[in-house]
Amino acid sequence: MFLLKKIISQLLLPLPLCLEISLTGLFLLYFTRRQRLGKALISIGLITLTLLSYGFMSDRLLHPLENRYKTYLTESATDGLKYPVRFVVVLGGGHTSDPKLPMTSQIDDSSLVRLAEGIRIYRKQPGSKLVLSGGRVFDPVPNAEVMAGIARELGVDRGDIIVESRPKDTHDEACIMKSIVGSAPFVLVTSASHMPRAMSLFKKLGMNPIPAPTRHRVKSNHALGPGSFFPHADNLHKSETAVYEYLGIAWTKLRGQI
Fold this sequence. Notes:
The chain is of the alpha/beta class. 52% of the residues lie in helices and 12% in strands.
């Protein structure tokens, strides 16, 4: 089921889906008499791919996800430490093992940014534990172990790190974390676009996460430049991130997990 879910989600992402539509149109155009339908499908695929590669479209898709929860503040204006907690939980994002490279090059950017934010909050919470989550998915080394290695290199005490290397997806992470944190409040660190789905899954199990979103891709003060008037791969990546999360939310709702 896990592998099937991953394959289907990849087929429904903007780039593969637009190519599938356009290639179907090409097939109809060259090998059948359905010329008008073939031309229509090619046009739909190319126009959709182009629109999703512009910032105004990708930001519109991603903004509602990233702005569901406010930035986590470790201190309040009057009371000093805000939300004292025992655990700072960082959800894994991915990596590719390559012993020839430093660990910071093996880990992907989402995991690295999440880890950096988790360490920042952990250092503001005296006596807390840094819980790193992420199992073996398509790599023999668990993502949590890679993050733990980087955390130790950055000065986090080994005794303050809890490595949870079993989960394969966010639902697994929520189920496993419940046995660690229980019903006590804890800080949950993940990408801003992923936070709505993660919060729903954790809350569904009766847990009390305090959201700490990071790796925001949509910037409110983004200045216009020459690149703003042309399609860009980074904008397409933002669109894919948004679509992936909407698909993830739909899937978890269908399975009754949120």
